[in-house]
Amino acid sequence: MRRSLILVVVSVAVVAAAAVACRLARPLPPPTMVLLVLDTVRADHLSLCGYGRPTSPVLEALAARAAVHCRTYAPGSWTLPSHASFFTGLEPVDHGAHAITSGIDDWSGMGSRSRPLPDGIPTLAEAMAARGYQPLAVSASPVVSETMGLMRGFEASTVARGWGDLYGSAVAAAVADLLTEQADDRPLFLFVNVADAHQPWAAVPAGVDWLPPRPPLHWNKAAPEGPWQRFVEGRMAEDEAAALIEHAVDSYDWAVYLADRSMGEVLAVLEDKGLCEAGCRVVITSDHGEFLGEDRLLDHGHELGEANVRVPVLVWDSRPLAELPSFDESSMSALEVYDLVLEGRRPAQARRASSMAWPHARRCKHVDGLAFCSTSAALWEGDERLLWRDGVTSRGKVVGAEVKPAGGPFEEHPSAARLSQLAERVHRDTRDDHQVDQHVTELLEALGYLD
Ligand SMILES: [Zn+2]
């Protein structure tokens, strides 16, 4: 299966090369544009980005004809704020679709303060439609939904009702089904969220030569004596914790491999339907990563650690003469996927690599952990991170998945004031009295975010 997908990808390039050669004398039609979000995929667990396990053979095959960046930072710490940023080109503090919970001083009605993307903000899908594209969407994440305001502008969409509904080959099948809605007279803009790397993680079957077999894994975060709470509170014996992390890493790596494979199947559908004959441009990223024991955390959505917010970006184009963006080794904002899709290039002025996270009231209340109660904002420049957390600032150098204290006092960094201004706004937002949205609350409750 893996080899055939790679061959499909390569054959798309060959067919497109021939097509380009025949059409040099005529203006080229606009390419099919695809924004593909690999939910929950951290950069450093991709073989694409140098990881030791072969977790991403399809991405690696694409990389032969792609621009790749592995030091990109997601604007939000979980699905809703990051997707709202991809769809608006705005940081979470500006679009406002981010707070699972806020008003940390007042526990009453905490679930009712979540906010969808507000109606008045223009979306990427609307902008692509204005440029003549037909925007269609398939989301395997039930969070990336109409309820959250994230389907605004898409002419038709298919969204999973629960985790796991569109994992594996089901996401490519959903894309194939949705493409029956495709218009003949307009080029396609397709958004796809591939969620296999998001829990619940599938069992690792026997016979995988780079992993031991493992049972399925799904954290029950509400159980006081379950492994998730005992681990994050430091109430787990060292050997049990080590075994838990080994299991989590193996399960996660397999889930990333499955996400890569599902993505390959989606691309194969485009090829089968002839949608790359006039050219295909595919922008791939992730909305956040996943803690696998770093900072004594599991899951995502909390601290702005590398494990949680460092993601990949890959831009692949089937047209051999198409210009690809140029990336350097410096930190980059994943917000740039908005420009990479809409304008086909990076913005003239690089966007600041920022990320922000708000308190999670339920976890703050039930779990003894600073991470869940904190408001944070971070900036990355070069290989340095500036962090503001509840008014405490720090400056450090990124080394692998860790940030080590380095670089001198925070206040002496040229961007210290810039981060403080951003953090001030992020902090103020935590105190805002948000409007109640019953539909959002009900969806988050159904998905296990609230209780
Ligand atoms: Zn996500």
Would you write up a description of this structure?
With 451 residues, this protein is an alpha/beta fold. The chain has one domain (2-220, 239-292, 304-353): Alkaline Phosphatase, subunit A, CATH 3.40.720. 31% of the residues lie in helices and 18% in strands. It has helices at residues 2-22, 57-63, 79-88, 92-95, 124-130, 170-178, 227-232, 238-272, 306-309, 336-342, 361-366, 416-431, 438-446, and strands at 32-38, 66-73, 134-139, 156-159, 188-194, 280-285, 291-292, 298-299, 310-317, 332-333, 353-357, 376-381, 384-389, 392-399, 402-405. The strands form three sheets. The protein has an eight-stranded mixed β-sheet, sandwiched between helices. The chain has a five-stranded antiparallel β-sheet with strand order 11-12-13-14-15. Strands 7-8 form a two-stranded antiparallel ribbon. β14 (392-399) and β15 form a beta hairpin. The longest helix is centred in the middle third of the chain and has 35 residues, at 238-272. The radius of gyration is 21 Å and the shape is globular. Zinc ion binds at residues 39-40, 78-79, 141, 198, 287-288.
Q: What small molecules accompany the polymer chains?
A: zinc ion
- Element pattern in H and E: HEHEHHHEEHEHHEEEHEEHEHEEEEHH
Tally of helical segments: 13
Q: Write down the domain tally.
A: 1
Determine the CATH superfamily. Answer: Alkaline Phosphatase, subunit A
* CATH fold naming: Alkaline Phosphatase, subunit A
- Give the class-level CATH name: Alpha Beta
Approximate strand percentage: 15-25%
- How many E strands? 15
Low-confidence stretches: 1-5, 12-16, 102-112
Rg measurement, Å = 21 Å
Structural class: alpha/beta
Approximate helicity band: 25-40%
CATH architecture: 3-Layer(aba) Sandwich
pLDDT averaged over residues: 89
Main β-sheet description: 8 strands, mixed
The shape, in one word, is globular
Strand order of the largest sheet: 4-3-5-1-6-9-2-10
The end-to-end distance, rounded to whole angstroms, is: 41 Å
